[in-house]
Amino acid sequence: MSFIYSKLTSFLNIINDEFHKSFLFTTIFSILYFIEDQWVNSFFKGLYPGENFLSFLKKSSIIKNHIFNPLIVLIIFSAFLALSLSRISYSLTITLIIAFVFFFIGANILPRFFLNDMKSVITFSRRDIYSIGFCLILVSIGFFFISIASVGGIPILKPSIRYLLKPAFTMPVFLIIPGTCILASVYLKDFQDNLITRSQVRFRFLVLLIIDIALLLTLGYRTPLLAALLLLIILGYYGNIVAVWEVVLGGLIGVGAIIGIGYFRSIHELTVSSAIDPFYTLKSRADFTLHVLNLLDIIGGNFGTTHGQLIASTIPGSELGPRMMVGKLIAWRTEVTITPTLIGQMVADFGKVGVAVEMCILGFILGIGFKIMRKTKDYFYIGLYSLLLTYAILGVETGILDIQVLFYFAVAFFIYTTIILKSIFNK
Q: Which keywords has UniProt assigned to this entry (predicted)?
């Protein structure tokens, strides 16, 4: 495995070096460095609220140190359930209790038995990691223009053509999320090594977010845009890049974006009228998604119905994608995509037993990642945990059903397992 990693990173380092030597990128980075310098030394920057703005927020130990503990997934899931306009069934209540209990065990209890000395953590070269992130963003930008050309317009200006976007072209665009995470974590390392100031790293975070907004909002996608915002907030929170009050404000902006974009898109698509309460779209979406989960719970029972077919449908080339397969399961409609919540796939594939096992595994990946990040404060593990927690939070509604997201969790599981095994056998 190390041989493959070595060859891959050597190849990506060459690509990174060649692009950075090109006239186009030399010019772009020169302009960005100039703007950064003006930003850092700007008089108006001093007018921006400082670290101690809304200082009362820092008095809470939970807000100051534990906002993004893995258990936040359960808190957000609970809030999502509370939004529903309808009651959930008794059977689903049992399934949810199982999900919450086993996630708690995986995230909060099992990690206590591993890596208590933290002597076997794998370190990664800054140069290699930067090259990976830079190349991911290059690929994303390239496929962004291909996606725009394929539909002959800009989806955000003409929402109807958004449904003409081809997944083969748009999926690589979403690589901008891990690319952003990786570059942001590298800038965090530079800050930790005192190579750049806090103001500089904050500016670079902002530039990355602006690039993400430009690409993802243009295509009319809401969830990936929230992913970019959320992962930068989490990364900045644990890297001491953003203040506590900025985390709270960022969360409110994220919620506002969910409500606002969904509301205006619904009006434009004539699914609601302007007289409808903007919060209604959020409540009705939660209600519909939980209704879907109710049906999947009935179908799945204790041991499941699809027995792995749903999770296998995430593989590119499958006849139906996972969310289309959900549509087929509950309504025999394959032309729509339906979000099944975080546990929808689990209960449909393997029933309540599958929910227990998969939620425990998910909790353990997040829990051990949280432990490694907190103990090492290493830039790579802060970035990796931020990426995983971001998709776990967003998966509360959408489910973790995209092949690239499953790949992120698989890579994290491999790295964490390697660290655990090294710590066991090196004793």
A: Membrane, Transmembrane, Transmembrane helix
